[in-house]
Amino acid sequence: MKFTKRNLWLLIGLALLILAPIGQGRYIVYTLTSWLVFSIAAMGLNLTLGYAGQISLAQSAFMAVGAYITALLTLNGIHWIVAMPIAVLSSFVLGLLIGFPALRVKGHFLAFVTLAFTTLVFLVLRNEDWLTGGPYGLSGMPRPDFGLFNTGKNINFYYFTVFIFVIFSLLMYQIVRSPWGRAFKGLRENEIRAESLGVNTRRITLLAFAIGSAAGGLAGSLMTPLVQFIEPGSFALLHSLRILLMVIVGGAGFFFGPVVGAGVVIMLPEVLRFTEGYYLMIYAVTVVVLIIFCPKGLVGLGEIISRKILKRKEVRKDFEQGAKL
Amino acid sequence: MTHPLLSVRSVSKRFGNIQAVNDVSFDVQQGEILGLIGPNGSGKSTLFNCLLGQYQPDSGSVALKGSNITGKSPSELNLLGIGRTFQQLSVFPEMTVIDNVILAGQEHSGSMISRLFGSPDAGLTEAAEKLIGFFKISHLRDEPAGSLSYGQQKLLDAAMAFMAEPSLVLLDEPAGGVNLTMLGNLKERLQAFNSEFGTTFVVIEHNMEFVMSLCSRIIVLAEGSVIAEGTPEEIRSNQTVIDAYLGA
């Protein structure tokens, strides 16, 4: 592997992830873990939204699927390492099943279809008490024990999550830089042209959606042992909107955009807590300002600044793009 | 019996009250460069889109080497060996030039699974570099396609149409907005493909000089119907064509 500037940044990032929780209290460690879990969910949505250009409001529903399946299996004595792939695969298959009819519609219409799905999942979780515990949810799920390494302690669970996050990021990176990733981007930038070049747009959109859903399932599968208590409210529509916010604030279509976005969405309320009653207002105004002044998100803003300084290449805006019939 | 490469039979397409294409039939022979001309609104682009699966014709059929391809999707038709360019600029602006060209070929290479786990360029970098060299845009290899000039984007669009080594390429106004030098360059490239690889072309174009010098046969459309067909010389002297263009 060539040692490039990018690899150096990645190493610094990894070092920061490792050093971050040292000497911190329980709550900070919990918040950091939660950030990584939501980063996974948001990176999944980024594949659907940022790369393939489809708006989905179902990410929290897929997290719910992953979380509940993991919870039910681990409560019945099955190890997390077995439960997790089942949860991820179920989310993937469910993504395919929902996506197949839903992706007949695009843009805002798809947003509504996925919104309905999230509501449906919420209702099932709340009403099917015999399976899901209804509004009281499920609790007491064990954290995975790997013999030499038990994730029972918060700090251990944090490092376990970092490990999963790194593996997940590598897999996502492989997808994004593969011909599939190129096809996803082609679909977002110019669907008609992509289709005329042999890209099966329906199939590739469906796959982007299903892979994004599987990432939601993985995040849910980590959520269960992290919180050790899940209830339908943790996966309501509001959380789909939060994940969407993470992708947009961080920068849709940028690989690590959602990680930055998840950091802002999760940490900002904590940082602003000293303002007491005003923090929600400040939080809301900050987000509105951010979206108006940097629609490409924080990573996008960083790129614009570095472009100005380093005189990097830029796409001209004077030609209207797009294949028109 | 040998079939023509493309065979169009009684294709019609109506949009509301407008009969955009009316009972159009023609054949395209292997290796020929066929021009499709006609005044604005004569149905050329609609006909193209009916042939390329973007629209479903209301009636009629299209066959490629004798097998019916009516109703196939644009991506299926591409995989069968039909390439196209668009009237408007039609590149992937945020991707580099080389990535644009690789995307144009990758769906023809390997399986779905190998495209996920195989090399990021699907083994196509060399072929793509050769092609952009052929269209004289090699120096723009790593630029985002959206930063190219209009004419350069037109050349890139054409290069993309050739990446999958199609047997038939449909070009929708390739010369529109392209300067004279580049136009000569483009014509030269198309003729080279035609003579070296036997690529067949159907070209929609308003630039008469370009069409007359490039095509061996020309079909003229007016108000959705074929009004004339023949060699460039025959078309030039055809009174119906002159009337249609002058609006007499």
Describe the structure.
The complex is a heterodimer of chains A (325) and B (248). With 325 residues, chain A is mostly helical. Chain A is built from 14 helices and two strands. Chain A has a two-stranded antiparallel sheet. In chain A, helix 4 runs antiparallel to helix 10 and helix 11 packs across helix 12. The longest helix of chain A is centred in the middle third of the chain and has 27 residues. Chain A is globular, with a radius of gyration of 20 Å. Chain A starts with a helix and ends in a 15-residue tail after the last helix. The model of chain A has no long low-confidence stretch (mean pLDDT 91). Chain B is an alpha/beta fold and 248 residues long. Chain B is built from ten helices and ten strands. In chain B, strands 6-7-8-3-9-10 form a six-stranded mixed sheet, sandwiched between helices. In chain B, a hairpin with a 2-residue loop joins strand 4 and strand 5. The longest helix of chain B has 18 residues. Chains A and B meet through helix 7, helix 8 and helix 9 of A and helix 2, helix 3, helix 4 and helix 6 of B.
